[in-house]
UniProtKB/TrEMBL annotation:
It holds the Pfam family ICAT. The lineage of its organism: Eukaryota, Metazoa, Ecdysozoa, Arthropoda, Hexapoda. It comes from the Eukaryota. This is Protein LZIC-like. Keywords: Coiled coil. PANTHER family: PROTEIN LZIC (PTHR16505). InterPro entries: ICAT_dom (IPR009428), ICAT_sf (IPR036911), LZIC (IPR040065).
Length: 173
């Protein structure tokens, strides 16, 4: 199972702690050896170490603010949707459209399914399953469902039940 960034985040935290320890130790060693170094070498080394500490601080500030992370916004959205839909959605196109947050295209797909049903291009069971997936995806994307669509979901409770334990998370910029 994927860690969805948890292992990587722990490794980053550990690496940052090690880097901080190394830089503080480097400053301590520099102070301890001050008498053995000429002033130019001491000042240059101390300035370099302080610059590294400032860079580390800048990185930590950005991480705390959320400006940078191990996972890009799109990557986070992808991980969130993969986790959320891994057992719920069966139709690859619905997964793709949901992951891209494209409610209009989901509505278009829903229309196409209804046309396919009228033309007997597929079984009612297959179309109902895809229609249920699309309606659930639309609802999770915050789209308003019609009374008819809500009744469909209620009637096909087995489709909605597949989503019962799925936790949809919002990924923010």
């Amino acid at each position: 199972m994927n860690s969805f960034g948890k292992v990587e985040t722990e490794k980053l935290k550990h690496n940052l702690e090690c880097q901080l320890d190394r830089l503080v130790e480097q400053l301590q060693d520099l102070e301890n050896c001050r008498d053995e170094l000429d002033s130019e070498e001491y000042n240059e080394t101390k300035e370099d170490t302080m610059e590294q500490l400032k860079e580390l601080n800048d990185s930590l500030t950005k991480l705390v603010k959320g400006d940078i992370s191990l996972i890009s916004t799109l990557g986070a959205m992808q991980l969130a949707t993969q986790a959320a839909i891994s057992q719920a959605f069966k139709t690859p196109e619905v997964i793709r459209l949901f992951g891209r947050r494209e409610p209009k295209q989901l509505r278009d797909k829903l229309f196409d399914l209804e046309q396919d049903l009228k033309l007997n291009k597929s079984t009612t069971e297959a179309i109902d399953r895809q229609k249920g997936e699309i309606l659930i995806a639309l609802r999770q994307l915050g789209e308003q469902l019609s009374t008819e669509e809500l009744q469909f979901l209620e009637k096909h409770n087995d489709i909605s039940t597949a989503f019962k334990n799925v936790e949809f998370i919002e990924v923010k910029e």
